[in-house]
Fold each of these.
Amino acid sequence: MQQKLPKRIRDYLREQEACCKPSTVAGYRVNLSHFRDWLQEIPGEIPFRKKLEELTKPLLRNYLAYLNGKNLVPYSRVTYLLSVKKYLAWEVDCGLLKEDLLEVLDRKHLPKVPEYLPRPLSSENDRLLQKILRESDNPYTPLFLLLRQTGMRISELINLPQDCVVANGHDEKYLKVPLGKMNTERLVPLTGETLALIDRIRNAPPLQAHRRNQTRLIGLAGPVSSVYRLLAHRFEKLLGDMTDQGKPVTFHRLRHTYATSLLTGGVSLVSLMKLLGHRRIEMTLRYAKVTPTHLRDEYLKAIRVLENQSAAGLFQTSAQTTSACDPSEIIARLASFLIKASRIDPAYQKNLLRRLRRLQQDFSSLTFSQKFKLDFV
């Protein structure tokens, strides 16, 4: 049987219910239960409030060690500690604790959250995934394709209403995503393909006649958690053993792929923040990461630009020190023209520039008895 939380914590949670979502309060309840368990392990048969009043900085540091012993991932430890810090700050406001106690739980003392590689799919797997979804006759595939094309969370897709498409005065269509995880509404611009996809979902036969919810676009009734499990099973069955970077393809990775593809296409961080429904730009930065493939392409592009600039500078300098009709100047102009106007493979262009540079050096070392003339007809 689960042990009841102390009255002080229950009073705190009751106040939080006035300004936080039920799911947030439920998270606080779970996180603070660990703090209660640790505090009750301190020797002495005294009430919770008394132990709280006798809390010191060294004791609170022991709580950090207590959490480390739980073998939790860094994200979970940070979440627990921030929940405890917020609760203790409430006790400070109530006059039960001194404010300097909170210094122990300052962000600089919390565990460092690891920086993982970006979670979006590679360009190849993204194209393959969309190809599979477009060509499949599975009735669930339009739902998954809509996730990829709009960047919605799976919970937002499940709760999306039938009348989710809105238009402005210029006949532009938008997907109105209702209040979700961040408790914010947002509008996502729709292309003709995505708009047709929504109409296809709306007009399709019920996915499950015995679990129909006519207010939802996807038509599936039941709690979000149970509908999620159903969709996840269908998604996994559809993709089979498909993986990316050695990890399975999940719904949330589609959201990361959506964000990264828009960033690569030139969408600003502020616009991306609005499209994803984030409140702070820091949250968007977790999605807007450069993939290794994109990083390599950008690097090679920059190297080619620098090499071309270097080659152009070498030829230009040489041309300025020779006569107007010197053969080496003709080669320098040819190289400059090659850089500016050619539409050839970069590797082939680089090879031609290298050969022209050698040829220019050979000609510049020669002495001619007359000027080189170009006759134009």
Note: The chain has a mean pLDDT of 82.
Amino acid sequence: MSGPPSLLGIYTRAILGAVTKSNKRIPESLTTVEGIASEWFSFSIDEAHVEQFKQVVGGASNPGVPISYLQCYLNAMPMNMLTARNFPLNVLGSVHESSSIESHKNVSLVSKLTATSNMNSAVLLSNKKDWLFKHVTTVTDDEADGEVVMTLTNEFRVLNPERNKVKVEGGKPASVSYDAESGWSKVGAWDYPVDTGRSYAGLNGDINPIHLFPITAKLFGYKSCISHGMYSVCKLMAEGEGVASAVQSSGGKMKISARFTRPTFLPAEVEAWKNGSGEFVFGVRDKEGVLKETVKGLITM
């Protein structure tokens, strides 16, 4: 490819897939998806887009290209594969399950880079018999003999239309107390307005209806629109107390992984906590004051 995949093409295929692909006809025996070709393109950093990214997620005063930026910029690559004509499932209403950013050095505004994306052919099933797909995008430095500067791993969940009929064994996991006595420190608290999903979608192109408006999210069974999980990860790295400074001093050598455990319904008052082992959690307080986790992850330097 000569540039990122066309968002117009991606969403045209997604809408057509909603008509031509029926997930109810996909057998549980689906364990592999073959024939989705690797994709790659070379690019330079768009300084204006980087500044827009900082305005949306925070950290406008932080110098250089944020480590989380390429995860946002290259989001169209796995989306393009999920909407390929030979991909068997309708992905409208699907969700981003987890993400990992493994960075080896800082990227500069003058870097010449190449991104190569592959989809793992193996299909996993969740306890609700949702389909899970994993994509890996490798970013290399064209001016350093193809040195790998970053590896992005993303997992997506395509919802089983019969998931509400699937009984899951086992009780709810015990709640965790996020406080100093348990070794946790609050590193941030933010208000997420109702347009948070639309703002981040303007950056990464993920205009999944569940992120845009309460009315479009309700079409897929949600009570309101949902923030992108990666928005919280970017917010932590840009503005988290003690986290943002550690990211800035890391020289680009770090790994951050996150699993998106529960929707963040918008608008919301969101908290972020971190412990000494590098674990972090985002959550929203319920009526009893218990923090309900929405994102859980780990940062290692």
Note: Residues 7-20 form the longest helix (14 residues).
